[in-house]
Amino acid sequence: MSQSTNVARSTVRQIIELGITDVVISPGSRNAPLSLAFAEAASKDLIKMHIRIDERSAAFFALGLSKASNRYVPVLSTSGTAVANYFPALLEAYHSANKLLLLTADRPERLRKTGSNQTTLQSGIFGNFVSISIDSSSIIDISHFLNGAGPIHINLQFDEPLLPSDQNDWLAGLKIQPLAERYVTPSEISITQKRTLIILGHDKGGFEVAKLNEFIEESKAVLLSEDPLAFPDAITHHPIILSNEKVRLELTPDLVIVIGRTTLTRSTNALISGAKRIIVIDPKISEIDTRRSADEIHTSLPKVLATESDPSWRGEWERYSKLASRALKAGAPWSETRIAETLSQFKFDALFIASSRPIRDIEAACVSSSSINTFANRGLAGIDGNISTAMGIATQFDKSLAVLGDLAFFHDISALTNEIDESLTVLVVDNNGGGIFSTLPQRGVPYFEEVFGTPHNKSIKKIVSGFGIKVVEVESVEELESALSNSLANPKNKGVTVVVAKVPDRESNADNLAFIASEFNNLIS
User: Fold this and answer.
1) Three-state SS for 266?
2) Residue 337 counted as domain residue
3) Cβ neighbour number for residue 344 with a 10 Å cutoff
């Protein structure tokens, strides 16, 4: 048996015995020992193998799978530029503390800096963005490194021969023993303030929804969530409420508890900064966001000792929420906020939301009667790799929906070359360019269209049709409801279905958002 085959088989066997269930592979020659070992294990139903043509899509697909399963997902590449294509997904995984296991095949160390083909300095290439980086040409104990603290890089040097020359049953006698979750003894917090507010970042601090609901109930606090679909008891439409400075000051809490990162609305962060006392709860503070500050910091959910809340203060939040709902309904009959609002009436198992405008529109407009599994790439809030991430998430659910802007969709359109067995509806909000910039101070500056608006002037429907994928274009709420009903309600709809929502120009959407804020101001005056 060659050394390369021996190392590859040992690596794959360990991965399976650690309870890892999926692997994502891109084609290549230098990674042949690992690819063939995984393929043999997959043929015996010991692991599920996902093939992705390019490494960038592969890494984001693995990221989505990891987000949805909260398990390590190995993603395997050949040597050279293939490795560098992992970087965008890796950065997201690092800042979100997701469990990616990067397996990069390398040429022998003796070939580095010799001009050898497809040979670069892969050892340590990811720098501080992995918790552990290993460079080896021999067998290593993988379990020693899987500590549950974000992405890990294992760079394996494979010398020729790369192909196996024997048929032994190297997978016999497997003993699967998944790694146990690390137990952290919870601290305690005492809440004596009657006006206590919990603000949940969209990343939820990485905590399970069930545990967060227990914490919220025990705290007796008012809840604002950047992810309203996962928490039906949260105060809805809070970005509209807090856009009014007078209301924001009136509702200033005595204590605000921030869980995770708050990255969507400046008015929310203004409310936080005005609180008399701030507590932050986020595991990422220990390793990633080490410079975050607050009056009190916790890296795990503490036990709560609460006294009583102020029901009249909660009543004021609820009153303003109803007024914000009326302001929303007074807005344009077909707009990006109206699209987000429409999503509330549909049932699906998982929702992936792209950054930029979609995630903010859903935060402001959506109302949910039951908790939905929601995901987003909020580690760095990039718009790259979104289709691939949604595909990875869809592997863990029966019926999934992804909402993307047109630029995010184009950014990862090559992902459509990969087929999936699961049901994924991709809703593309097409405003012909970078819609969020029309809502930012850049609006109206010279050269706005060239450097910010960036209109693509392309028919997404025609392009998607070229991939042989089901696609429908809609231009009204009624057409959107029909398209989503057909896609989400039919259990036979496997693979990807694309719904393109053509909306008015970007300036009209920005004007509609301003009108909603103005209407809210009129209602409260």
Assistant:
1) helix
2) yes
3) 16
* Domain contains 105: yes
pLDDT at residue 1, as a whole number: 66
pTM for the whole structure: 0.95
Determine the Cα angle at 234 with ends 344 and 211, to 5°.
105
Q: Is residue 176 part of a domain?
A: no
Angle made by CA atoms 216, 221, 227, in degrees to the nearest 5: 60
Contact present, 16 and 170 (Cβ < 8 Å) = no
168 located within any domain: no
Say which residue, 143 or 411, is predicted with more confidence.
411
Beta bridge partners of residue 430, listed in sequence order = 502
Strand partners, 497: 425, 470
Percent of the chain residues topping a pLDDT of 90? 86
Place of tokens 């697909």: 61
316 with 354, same domain: the answer is: no
* Chain segment 336-376, per-residue pLDDT in tens: 999 999 999 898 999 999 999 999 999 999 998 888 999 99
Q: How many Cβ atoms are within 10 Å of 445's Cβ, its own excluded? A: 10
Cβ neighbours, 10 Å, residue 231 = 24
Number of domains into which the chain is organized: 3
DSSP 8-class letter at 109: G
d(CA 194, CA 307): 8
Claim to verify: residue 200 and residue 305 sit in the same structural domain: yes
Print the domain residue range for 138: 3-157
